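User: Let's play a game. I give you a shape written as tokens, and you guess the letters that built it. Ready? Here's round one.
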């Protein structure tokens, strides 16, 4: 891997929680950090704070609402047009089991179940759109921030139109991230681009966890360090297709290893994203 100060790194959902803390660590190390979020005011404030905290002026703001696939396209276009090189993509953005919606089923701008759209589909499309930039910047890495909370996908009711449950919606989207990671690892040359995913920690003190009324368990810093490791550890050069629980190799839900389920998810994702 190249020195951190020579890298451009995009982190989605980087205005608070794990994403913001990770951005701070990477900016401190001298990387060019692209901070993504959907709130313009909070995003610009975050960038100014990070520049002041780290002394690194190469921290930049990118706005996009991941509930809109058109805005995901716009985000990818902006990264390519303004920065060209991209050495690491961290798909971190997500929404929890209850907020927004207080447990009610909601839909994205494109008419898809909101948690599937934001927590999985947006990252799927963004990664696909940025693969050429990652390849041309090799060695490069893709890091998908998933969860140990995983549930098998019911392909007869992926959008949970019949029986909606916020926990099911969240957990199937997180498993979809793992399945996508494994697909990418098989597709890509690990000498050029690696793809790994992780459960950073159980109920870290984030807005998502507090919004669900859950008492935090894992300190945020532990989750940040586990995620940071997948971005910067030279020992992981060429290591691809792994799911980590913290820093330990782990086994995800068995559906993640099912080639037929992954094929169905891949074809569904391409169709929903019009790829």
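Assistant: Ready! My guess for every position:
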């Amino acid at each position: 891997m190249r020195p951190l100060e020579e890298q451009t790194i995009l982190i989605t959902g980087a205005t608070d929680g794990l994403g913001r803390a990770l951005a701070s660590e990477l900016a401190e190390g001298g990387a060019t950090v692209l901070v993504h979020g959907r709130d313009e005011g909070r995003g610009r404030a975050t960038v100014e704070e990070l520049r002041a905290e780290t002394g690194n002026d190469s921290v930049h703001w990118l706005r996009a609402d991941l509930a809109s696939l058109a805005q995901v396209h716009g985000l990818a276009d902006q990264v390519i047009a303004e920065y060209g090189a991209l050495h690491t993509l961290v798909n971190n953005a997500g929404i929890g089991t209850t907020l927004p919606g207080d447990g009610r089923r909601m839909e994205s701008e494109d008419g898809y179940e909101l948690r599937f759209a934001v927590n999985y589909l947006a990252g799927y499309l963004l990664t696909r759109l940025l693969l050429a930039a990652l390849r041309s910047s090799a060695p490069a890495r893709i890091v998908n921030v998933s969860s140990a909370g995983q549930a098998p996908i019911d392909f007869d009711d992926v959008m949970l139109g019949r029986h909606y449950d916020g926990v099911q919606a969240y957990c199937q989207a997180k498993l979809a991230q793992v399945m996508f990671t494994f697909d990418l690892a098989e597709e890509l040359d690990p000498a050029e681009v690696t793809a790994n995913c992780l459960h950073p920690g159980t109920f870290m003190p984030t807005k998502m966890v507090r919004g669900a009324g859950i008492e935090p368990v894992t300190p945020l810093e532990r989750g940040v360090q586990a995620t940071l490791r997948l971005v910067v550890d030279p020992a992981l050069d060429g290591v691809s297709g792994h799911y980590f629980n913290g820093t330990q190799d782990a086994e995800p839900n068995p559906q993640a290893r099912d080639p037929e389920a992954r094929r169905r998810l891949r074809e569904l994702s391409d169709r929903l994203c019009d790829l």
